Amino acid sequence: MSRFNAKYLLLFIILIVIIAISALFAQLYSEHLPLDVLAITCYVIVVIVVTFLALLLIPKLFTAESFKGDTENISAEDLFSFTHDPSTNLPTAQQALRAFDSAIKADRGQRYAAIVFKPINFQHVNSLIGYHNSDLLLLQLAYCLQKSVAANKKLLNFAIAPEPIRIARLQSLQFLVFYNLTDNRFDDNSVLNDVCQQIAKSVPEAMSFKSFSLNFELAFGIAISGDNGDHFDEIIAHAGDALINGLKNNKQINYFEQSSIVYNTDLLVRMETLRQDIEDEKLFCYLKPQINITNHHIIGFELKVHWYENEQDKPLGLSEFFELAEHSGGLYPLTKFMLNKALSTIAQLYSIGVYQRISVTLSNESLFEVDLVDYIEQQLAKYGVSGKYLMIEFSEQVMLNAGSRVKVIIDQLKSLEINIAIANFSGSYESLRYVRKMAIHQLKINCQGLTNDSSNRVDKAITNSLVTLARSMKIPLVGTYVDKHQASEAYISMGGELMQGDIIHPGVVPEELEIWLEKWYLQHPESIPPEAKPSIY
User: What's this model's pTM, rounded to 2 decimal places?
Assistant: First the structure.
C-alpha cells in the first residue's frame, strides 16, 4: 500500500471511531440515562486529545523511512552509472550542473570560466573502426585528460567520491571543465590559455587501438560567468558557441564575445534587407578584365559583386557585406547567384564566338557546402557551357587551414574541368607545397601598394620574388588592383605580364560586355581570337 493511501485510511478509521462514540453518547442521552457533567467532559477531552495526537503523529509515522519496502536502495554502482557517462567514465552534464550550482550557491561572489573542448579530428574514426572500438580510444583520451588536471584545485570537482574528477562529458564529443577565477590576480585570458595548453599537452602523441593510430588535436571554447551569464545552461551554450566559431576560423582557443549575439534592430533590418535583395537578385555585378600586357590578349574576367544598400550612392563590395550575408543566411544563395551570373555570361560570350574564362570568388563557408559541386554541374548543363571556362577562386588562408578538405573539393571541381585560382598568394613554403600538390591553375598577388620609386622597397622585393617564382613554376600569375600607372610600370619592370585593375577598366557590366569587346578588339586587332565572329569588331 502506498504512503498516501495508508495515511488517509488511518484518518478515516479514527473519524469512524469518533463518530461511533459520539453516537453512543447521543443514544444514551436520548434514553434519559443518568449522564453527569463529568462523563460528558471526559468524552469531549478524549475526542480533542485523539484528534490532536492523530494530527501530530501521522506525518511522523508515514515518513519515507517507514516505507522502505516500496523502493529499493540505490547501490554505489547504480549511483555511479546514473551520474557518469558509460563511454568515458566521466561525470555527465547533469552531474556537472549539480556541482556548479552547489559551488555558486556556496558563495555568490565567485567567478567561473566554462571551458568546452573537443577532439576535432575524431569524426572519421567511427566510420573506420566502428563505434565500439572508437569508444575505447575515447576512454583512453578521457583517462589522460582527467589524469592531467586532477591535481588542479582551481578546477571544479564534479565527483561524488573522495577522489576528484574535474572533467565532465557533454553531448557529442565535447568535454567540460570549470576554472575558478574568483581570486585570480592575473589576466583572465592568460590564465585560461595556460589551462587549455595544459589539457592539450596531456594528450599522447599517438593513441592506438589494434592497427589504428590517431593523433588527437583539441579545440577550446571559453565563456566566463558574470560576463557571459550566470546560469549553467547559458554559460555552457556560450562556451559551445565560442568553440564552434573557433573551429570555423581555425582557432585552437576561442573566447565567447557578447557582441556575437547582440544584434540591434538596425542590424537585423540590414540583414533582412540583404537577404531579400539576394533572393530578388538585386545585386550589381560587373567584370574586371584580365589582360596580357605584352600582346593585349584577354586571358579572362573576374566577376565582382556590389550591393547598393537602401539605394545609397556608394555601394558595398563583397568583402564589406560578406559577414552580413553569412549572419542573414544568404551566403550560399549569394554564391549561387554569382555562379549563375558567371555561367550566363560565358554562354553570352559563346554566342559571339568568344571563349574566355570567368572567375568567381568563393568564401570559406560556401566552398565547403555539401552540394556545391553538384550544383555547379547542374548549372553547366543548364547553360550548355564547358567547365574549363569557369574558374573558382578562394583565398590562400583557406588552403592552409583546411588543406585536406580543400584538396577533395578541388579534385571534384577538376573532374568538371573547372580551373582553380588562389588569391592573395604569399609565396610561403607551406603555400608552395599545397600549390604543387593541388596543381593550381592561377595565382594572384595584390599590387595595390606598388610604386615606381624607392618608397616601398619591401613590397617591391616581395612582388619581384613572387613574379620570378611563378615564372619558374610555370603557373600564370595575375597582378590585381593595378589601378595606377606607377603600379603598372613597377609590375612590368619586374617581369609581370598578366594584370587586372582600373588601369585596364574599372568594371564592365555583363550587358555591355559585347560593346566593350568590340572597342578593345578595334583598338588592339592583334588580340582578336581567330574563332570570334566578325560582328563583334
Answer: 0.55
